[in-house]
Amino acid sequence: MAEDSDQERTEDPTPRRLQQAREKGQVARSKELNTAAVLLASAFGMLIFGQSLAETLAKVMKRMFTLNYDEAHDVNQMMSAWPDVLVQLIFPMGGFIALLFVATFAGTILMGGLTFSAEAMAPKLNKMSPFKGFKRMFGVQALVELLKALAKFVFIALFAYLLLSFKFEEILHISIEDFPGNIAHAVQMLLLMFIILCLSLLFIVAIDVPFQIWNHTKQLRMTKQEVRDEMKDVEGKPEVKGRIRQMQREMAQRRMMAEVPKADVVVTNPTHYSVAIKYDVDGPSAPRVIAKGNDEVAMKIREIAREKEVPIMVAPPLARAIYYTTKLDKEIPEGLFLAVAQVLAYVYQMEQFKKGTGKRPTPLPNELPIPDELKH
């Protein structure tokens, strides 16, 4: 039972699975969104360019129906009238077609974005199989699409009926209006009803878009084993990751050891901890820890410090406090300022004494001023 449940596609697709599907051209798309965008663009295009287009078509018809004698009897002269006609149609027709083109493009990429997949364009032999073709035609997906189409038809038909019922008296009144005002009124009413009918498609879009997103996610769902396998592929096998982490630690340790010679002092607990401290007298920051470690790493820090003649101070409580409270390359906490200042002052005075330019400093007290909450 457990093995069977592992094979159920219960896990949401990972980002990598979604990216792979996108590369294959498999993205969530809504035909209803594209259809609504094109129809709404058509409706508003007629609203914007309709009058100009109607006036231009009237001029074209008038021009083509009022040919002179020579144009009517000479094909070449008749064809010479077409450039004038086409020039007049460029603006209204061009604007309308451009609006439809933009709406078609926007409706396609609005959901799922712009994708290009050579794999999706390549011919697939399995799609040429008659058996699979019949399976697609009479399968569950085809039944769902049929039911959706019927539901859309019923919804649009009902909405159109309600709209016609609401405008019924106005439609009847057109027949008793004067010509040509009744024609203009009819055109305006048709355009308004067309726009309202197109807007009703937004209700279908509001249902279809979430459904397509859900259906796309459902199709890409993964089994628990697939998720585990992908994690192994992406992150690598545990032993490989362990080796990588070890190499990273070694590289970080080498970088840290290269900083030890730059330290002003190394504070140690002789058997367990070592911290290397650097203080820039002219800088605005407090002393920082440029290297730290315990056990073997602590011994290595002390070894390098001795080789590079970096002062080493034995102060077990301070070494432990700095080791546990301060991250690498970070400033020491405010509570340790006074204790570290005493250590740095002692080191500076000792250097001056060795150079013969100062007196021997007073030995550090056995107990440095370390707050109880910072002691370890």
UniProtKB/TrEMBL annotation:
Keyword Transport among UniProt keywords: yes
Subcellular location: Cell membrane
Topology of this chain in the membrane: Multi-pass membrane protein
Entry keyword annotation includes Metal-binding: no
Pfam families: Bac_export_2 (PF01312)
Chain segments carrying region Disordered: 1-28, 356-376
SUPFAM superfamilies: EscU C-terminal domain-like
Keywords linked to the UniProt accession: Bacterial flagellum biogenesis, Bacterial flagellum protein export, Cell membrane, Cell projection, Cilium, Flagellum, Membrane, Protein transport, Transmembrane, Transmembrane helix, Transport
Principal location listed in the UniProt entry: membrane
Composition bias, Basic and acidic residues: 7-28
TM region positions: 33-54, 89-116, 137-163, 183-211
Family: Belongs to the type III secretion exporter family.
PANTHER family recorded: FLAGELLAR BIOSYNTHETIC PROTEIN FLHB (PTHR30531)
Function: Required for formation of the rod structure in the basal body of the flagellar apparatus. Together with FliI and FliH, may constitute the export apparatus of flagellin.
Official protein name in the record: Flagellar biosynthetic protein FlhB
Species assigned in the record: Corallincola platygyrae
Lineage: Bacteria, Pseudomonadati, Pseudomonadota, Gammaproteobacteria, Alteromonadales
Gene name tied to this protein: flhB
